[in-house]
Amino acid sequence: MTNHWVDIKNADVILVMGGNAAEAHPCGFKWVTEAKAHRKARLIVVDPRFTRTASVADFYAPIRTGTDIVFLGGVINYLLTHDKIQHEYVKNYTDFSFIVREDFAFNEGIYSGYNPEKRNYDKSTWDYERGDDGFAKVDPTLQHPRCVYNLMKQHYSRYTPEQVEKTCGTPKDKFLKVCEMLASTAVPGRAGTILYALGWTHHSVGAQMIRTGAMVQLLLGNIGIAGGGMNALRGHSNIQGLTDLGLMSNLLPGYMTLPMEGEQDYEAYITKRAAQPLRPNQLSYWKNYRAFHVSFMKSWWGDNATAENNFGFDYLPKLDKSYDMLQVFELMAQGKMNGYIAQGFNPLAAAPNKAKISLGLSKLKWLVIMDPLATETSEFWKNFGEFNDVDPAKIQTEVFRLPTSCFAEERGSLVSSSRVLQWHWQGAQPPGEARSDLEIMSGLWLRMRQAYREKGGKYPDPILKMTWPYADPESPTPEEIAMEFNGKALADVTDPVDKTRVIAKKGEQLASFAQLRDDGSTASGCWIFCGSWTQAGNQMGRRDNSDPTGIGQTLGWAWAWPANRRVLYNRASCDLAGKPFDPTRKLIAWNGKTWSGPDIPDFKADEPPENGMNPFIMNAEGVARFFARDGMNEGPFPVHYEPFENPLGYNPLYPNTKEAVSNPAARVFPDDRAAFGTAKDFPHTATTYRLTEHFHYWTKHARMNAIIQPEQFVEIGEELAKEVGVVAGDRVKVSSNRGHIVAVAVVTKRIRTLTIEGKKVQTVGLPLHWGFKGLTQPGYLVNTLTPSVGDGNSQTPEFKSFLVKVEKA
Ligand SMILES: Nc1nc2c(c(=O)[nH]1)N[C@H]1C(S)=C(S)[C@@H](COP(=O)(O)OP(=O)(O)OC[C@H]3O[C@@H](n4cnc5c(=O)[nH]c(N)nc54)[C@H](O)[C@@H]3O)O[C@H]1N2
Ligand SMILES: Nc1nc2c(c(=O)[nH]1)N[C@H]1C(S)=C(S)[C@@H](COP(=O)(O)OP(=O)(O)OC[C@H]3O[C@@H](n4cnc5c(=O)[nH]c(N)nc54)[C@H](O)[C@@H]3O)O[C@H]1N2
Ligand SMILES: [Mo]
Question: Are 197 and 58 members of one domain?
Answer without folding.
Answer: yes
